[in-house]
Amino acid sequence: MSEATGKKAVLQLDGKEIELPIYSGTLGPDVIDVKDVLASGHFTFDPGFMATASCESKITFIDGNKGILLHRGYPIDQLATQTDYLETCYLLLNGELPNQEQKEEFDKKVRAHTMVHDQVSRFYNGFRRDAHPMAIMVGVVGALSAFYHNQLDIEDVNHREITAVRLIAKIPTLAAWSYKYTVGQPFMYPRNDLSYAENFLYMMFATPADKDYKVNPVLAKAMDRIFTLHADHEQNASTSTVRLAGSTGANPYACISAGISALWGPAHGGANEAVLKMLDEIGSVENVAEFMEKVKRKEVKLMGFGHRVYKNFDPRAKVMKQTCDEVLAALGINDPQLALAMELERIALSDPYFIERNLYPNVDFYSGIILKAIGIPTTMFTVIFALARTVGWISHWLEMHSAPYKIGRPRQLYTGETQRDIKR
Ligand code: CMC
User: Fold this and answer.
1) The whole model's pTM is what?
2) TM spans, by residue (predicted)?
């Protein structure tokens, strides 16, 4: 629980004073509790939640000015380089990194749930072959609600916990199949002798015809790191969507499906796909200057740049860039799009337009280049973000359900017609 600081903010309204309590967390700005404003007949107004803390949370802390991202207190660069993704999942879910025994037990649990009910595979046939894999994900993840009637009691801590494991375990299977379906290849079943990232790459790229298919360890390591870097990000749009859906008592599969929908937009997780489309459109380094002029005329956005919270640098982007360099070097890839991306980055970091607006490359700027090098098709980029973020979403959903909460129900500043009568 947050600490009351004893400090109060005083709001003067219609000649009266309303005292608003101020609370402190362990890090970050204090918050002003505005609930008592309601009694005065006013609402607070903050479209886009620019200055609104929507909940208390112990999971992730971001200091956007200093470029700090901590999960349960641990800096993201340490987690990305010193833990594997499932350890970070354990941390997000449980609050502590696992010891060896806990790690083995958690890995085993996740591996035991990687298969989906065989009937789930039939949902895919209902989609057009050219369906965007995110459209498939929204559908099939929500459809999981239909398979666990006996373990959907959100008041039951055991049901909640098994659901979290199921989601983390099954999402790579569903994601890989959303790709296989669109290319017309048979679905590959998960292999529990492989690590989490290896298993995903195996289900993506192996075929029944290629019995000797081996996952490249360099790519598996990069994939694992990409998963870790996307695992959670505090109360972003998709996580807030999951919490809001969860606040109605909706089942967790439906809530995660809502999160996937919110993530899909190009201002959020869809940006990684949009970055590659943008690089394709620009075409070559010679066209960069002209493109930047268009950005400054606000005709287009520089995708993969800017962030609501980070106004200095995105600490995930730092690790991602390093991983990008490692992967391209290990694979001996000299991608002309990387040169293009570097030129965009160079101009953006030196041009006053971008400096004044604190526009820095975000995590999605580099992830697309790595994913492309790994051989992941562009339409799967946001699916991979969703796969990795599932643990963050479910951790927030669990946190919300393990303490008293209220249904999320914002109000509005109504600017429509006043009451009138139908005249016929
Ligand atoms: N390209 C060009 N100008 C931009 C960009 C951009 N990518 N982002 C913001 N601006 C400008 C914007 O036009 C505005 O200028 P002015 O003050 O002259 O009106 C100023 O910067 C402030 O922008 P804003 O829209 O008020 O900022 P916001 O905090 O509401 O939006 C954002 C944050 C991430 C939605 C936005 O920066 C954006 O659309 N970026 C591109 C999409 C992207 O890369 N998203 C991925 C975010 S990281 C992954 C994730 O967590 O989802």
Assistant:
1) 0.94
2) 365-388
